[in-house]
Amino acid sequence: MSFIADMGLIALRIGAFVIGVYLIISALLSAIRTFILPRSAPDQIVRAVFLGVRRLFDLRMRRSTTYEQRDSIMAMYAPIALITLPVAWMIVVGVGYSAVYWALTDGRVSDAIFLSESSLTTVGFAPVSGLFVSTLVFIEATTGVLINAVLIAYLPTMYAAFSAREQLVTLLEVRAGLPPSPITLFERYNRIRGMADLHELWGEWEVWFAQLEESHSSLAALAFFRSQQPGRSWITSAGAILDSAALSLALLDLPDDYQAALTIRAGFLALRQIADFFGIDHNATPNPDDPISVLREEFDDLCNELASVNIPLKADRDKAWKEYSGWRVNYDTVLIALAGMTMAPYAPWSSDRSNRKRRPKLLLKKRKIITPAP
Questions:
Q1: H/E segment holding residue 141
Q2: Cross-strand partners of 252
Q3: What is the spatial distance between Cα 21 and Cα 96, in angstroms, rounded to a whole number?
Q4: pLDDT (tens digit, 9 = 90+) per residue, 293-305?
């Protein structure tokens, strides 16, 4: 019986060692995927952290009655979730090393946890014996320092990407109002006789969309960083620009501008890439005749408003509607889904219709659900 008990204990220690090594490697790979790997790579630890923090924020927002209150609460969501990440990694690493220490020593589980806590926090208050265990203690202490150093070193990069995103979002308010609207944009450009300058605007936003795709798929937390003003949002600004470019090609009586078409393509490719990262379902090859969330009546109302402020429009509205729908179908689904996911402020033809039905579930590649804001 003693032999069987000894063999069982040895098997248990081997299992603890394997699990401990797995947890340590998982935490390190999670940190690498999140802050070092220059491509989108969803991670289960990151997903769990953002899911848990989001649920706490959802509970807090149940007592909020206005959008301004919810926006103020959600402004803290991404920063708090981001700061929670190294804590989660440290816990996983600590548990992993505790299992390894218990497997390699004859001490109790509490002694292994005590040694791991001492090493991970680099306080070094627990005694260590044996060369191999001493080496592991040194590696664990280095791991704890590196995890925090990586986050601190990468925060400036993240906020630089946020600042670059917000620059054009802020400038769009000057041109398209708040919330941004194609009607306001065209009216202001027409008033200053600058309709030809729309070409330059489309070029600026093509570059913006390219940068958005790179930053918001590799640094997913950026999608939840809110603008300085409650009424601004990167996703509603993207929707306003895409609709404006589509309307300029389909409806405005102006020479065709290839740059508008390029901007639309850059835009829907960027939004699709971000949607793919979060696992949002969408049709990658939509048919131009597929239905969109904008109604024909809404399109006609927009035409009437533009005509009332002397914007030159094409005579054939049926053809214009068909062409606009053909452009809009490329980004309609992902635009509305991302607006709902980020709890974007009200804006026509984007976030306004994300509330008409139950907002899409937010997923991370493997279809793990993250509950969106109410």
A1: helix 131-176
A2: 313
A3: 6
A4: 999 999 999 999 9
